[in-house]
Amino acid sequence: MSLSKQTDYGTGHNFEEFIEELLNQNGIHANVVSYKQGDNGIDIIATFNRQIILIQCKNTGKPIDANIIKNFQASVYRFGEPILSIIVYNSEKLKNYNCPLTKSARLWWKAVCPEIQIASEKMIVTCIQKILQSEESELNFESLKLDSESEELSELEQEQLYSVEKSHSVKPTCYKSDDDFKFQIENLLSGNRILVNSFNSRKDKIDIIATFNRQIILIHLSNSSDVNTFKGLQTSVYRFGEGILSIIVQNSENFNNPSIKNERSYRKIKIITEKKIVNYIKNSLTKKNFKKTSHKKYGLSANAIERRDNDVWSCSKQISDKVSWICPECTYINNPLMPDCEMCSTARTAKNNFIEEINTINQLENQDYISTARPAKNRFIEEINTMNQLVNQDYSFLEPMVAKISKNKNLCLEQWDCPDCTLINESDVVMCIACGYIKDNSIK
């Protein structure tokens, strides 16, 4: 959506409606709400990528003072941390000021709550989309970082706030009024570390918006058996976006009413009694059910780099039997514990201290083949020598056989060096058995 040029919004309520429409048309589900438990500035609750966004709208002609930020900060902390919170101001009305905040407000904001975003109506959409970049992203405040002492203080305040955890055992009771029923549910949730905020929306039938594990919960309270009170609830839930946990808390005295159990139009909204609401929320919103991006950096550790840089050849047991070293002269792959090449007796040099892990299965198999074939060749040469002695004794009937054996002897004794891997191959081999080089006719 192209940003509207309209900036004279008149009253603050009109400005809220404009921001709500602006966000909804840009894929951010926004709902104007009326904060019942002390209006400290939360005008809009929005959701984007299943993340909560708390927005305060300021349509004022003067810079925002420190008290507004303090009250908004207190309201935001009741939802738990971290929650994306934004104060959006009318840029047209503050165009004559260098900063939308007063000096005292700016000092407080930088020192205590820099995670609260300050944005104009022209930048609020971009601000939300940049911070909540993906469904699994953590809140990314980029350069805005909390002071470590302030962050520790916030955690300490939260621990003090919930240090006395209430143990609730809900007993069957007949609540005097709807307000009494709502008060009991609020106490029940708050006592079990589920942050509660009561709302009386102009549009929605949402009675309580709660948060647990940074997940939003929409709750509608029903203290009667009249299913007509459910009408319009489905639409209200969908306005917050998909994937939001929504619950109808029904008075257990009326839960056995068949008209409630058979209400098919609200199957996507869980209907539950006040006795089971706490366990249901905690089981549904446990951390294992939601993926979070872990920012891991993969690379060589300091110990690995030190071992690589200071690696000196030794007969240590840490060297694996499958890791070998290559002779620089004949390229034969040697056992890691051998100080000299088994093929050409070349000493292992310093440059071979770096152990190479390569796929040497084929070459090792070929080398094993050559090693096992050599004894057979030696026996064959001995047989040839024996036959030559017989020839010298003038056994003429053996001359054809001796001639054939001599021919084979010459073939076996003639060898050629591979120009690529320098492996010595037999004369009758036209392709190097180590690297696959095809013998050139010029090689003898």
From TrEMBL:
Keywords: Coiled coil, Metal-binding, Zinc, Zinc-finger. InterPro entries: Restrct_endonuc-II-like, Restrct_endonuc_IV_Mrr, tRNA_endonuc-like_dom_sf, Znf_RanBP2, Znf_RanBP2_sf. SUPFAM superfamilies: Ran binding protein zinc finger-like (SSF90209), Restriction endonuclease-like (SSF52980). It holds the Pfam family Mrr_cat. Residues 408-441 form the RanBP2-type domain. The keyword Zinc-finger applies. One of its GO terms (molecular function) is endonuclease activity. Gene3D superfamilies: 3.40.1350.10, Zinc finger, RanBP2-type (4.10.1060.10), Zn-finger domain of Sec23/24 (2.30.30.380). GO terms for biological process: DNA restriction-modification system; double-strand break repair. Residues 132-159 form a coiled coil. The keyword Transport does not apply. Signal peptide: none annotated. Transmembrane segments: none annotated. This is RanBP2-type domain-containing protein. It comes from Gigaspora rosea.
